[in-house]
User: Fold this.
Amino acid sequence: MPSAKITKVLVANRGEIAVRVMRTCRDMGLPTVAVYSDPDRKALHVRYATEAYWIGPAASRESYLNIERILDVAKRARVDAIHPGYGFLSENPVFAKAVTDAGLVFIGPKPYAMEAMGSKTGARQLMSRAGVPVIPGLEEPVADADEALRYANEIGFPVMIKAAAGGGGKGMRKVDQAKDFVSAFQGAKSEAKNSFSDDAVYIEKYLEKPRHIEVQVFADGHGNVVSFAERECSVQRRHQKLIEESPSAFVTEEMRARMGEVARKAARAVDYVGAGTIEFLVDAHRNFYFMEMNTRLQVEHPITEMITGLDLVELQIRVARGEKLPFETQQIAANGWAVEARVCAEDARNNFLPTPGLVRHFRQPAGPFVRTDTGIYGGSQVTGDYDPMIAKVVAWGPTRHSAIRRLDRALSEFTIKGCTTNTMFLRQILNFEPFVKGDYDTSVIERHQRENPRWCEEEHSIVALLGAALFSFERERQMQARVAPGSHNARTMSLSPWRVARQGGHSWRR
Assistant:
């Protein structure tokens, strides 16, 4: 692979991943260029970059998915490389090809590898030919519901209906009984069409008590492919990951070696270059099956960085420059345990509805071995136009137990005023007995919601009530000190907060 000059990088993304990529670029002495839509004009990634350019209104198709506008910015800013982050155009082979055709370096895999792994059915066929185990299912998309139902009956329920294109849980349905199949099939096709402009779906066998375990791979342009310790991503809501850990409490050393070998084989099958992730579904008997390959940097890459001490974005840039990987798989040491929680602006008590708003106050957790990746700050706006994830909180510990406890503590320090977050829900899962024991699968959140273990005791509500009362008392005392003596406001403020409460100012109840 010939060497490429990278002296200035455009980050074709937003939010925490844009900031995270820019930080590594700054460490490497590389100026960065941000792009932003109307609601992101004052976003953190815009402030952090060396330069920033407007690319359109809020709608993604007119801004972050607009290839022509992004390339126009790259030309005006005179960059020589583009990093796509994750989401948006990160796995779009048309974008990757357009970048290279423009004479720029795409910090990611080659377009043909993206294309080969972008279709789930095509990837299944390719992996089968390469000797990679795949879940029993159709090798081609199926358009007719009756035909699909006949096949589902052949392999036996439950089955999964999956969109052939895209990811993120869109166009995906689990079907337990034949009588529910047709409506689920039609619903999956409709969602796939709306999400990916492609309604193709296929059928595969649903594994009982499945665990979602993935392997990070890295390949350079000189034929070297390495794999890292696995990441467990089984804590999911509607197929969206919420908590990830590395390594997995379920994987044995022998299984880890086999998964790594298969992951490297899968990457070589498409002549892969750069960072990628091979995702597996694992059954209760530790049989693992190829599910898909993400041809980009994963959201959960920080936990791999925490246990290895490596900067995966820096590796991406060095490989894109044409450098060789500086190590082999057996030289990658994994130390301790790391756990990541995705903090989202959503209300877990109200069916996880998004909660956009102005961030009036923001405090990140701190302390030893805690990392927070975020794209917000006090005074910024959390918009409802994009994904509700606003931060990732990661903790490392020498053992799994210590890492979980440290992450729980860190989340207790995560403070934001202006929008509701899911931090309390994340802490509940971290303290849920099946998760604590490592005995869980992809249904762990559903199980938690069914069992609904008690989280807050009566004394917690009493402490919260007293704290609110004392806070209000102190605030009114400070306000009274600022009011001119003898004024009407001063006479009103001289009333005790309890008299004000009787006048309707406050109401305290247990």
About this structure: The domain at 136-205 is CATH 3.30.1490.20 (Dna Ligase; domain 1). The chain is about 35% helix and 20% strand. Residues 495-504 have pLDDT under 50 and may be disordered. The longest helix spans residues 458-482.
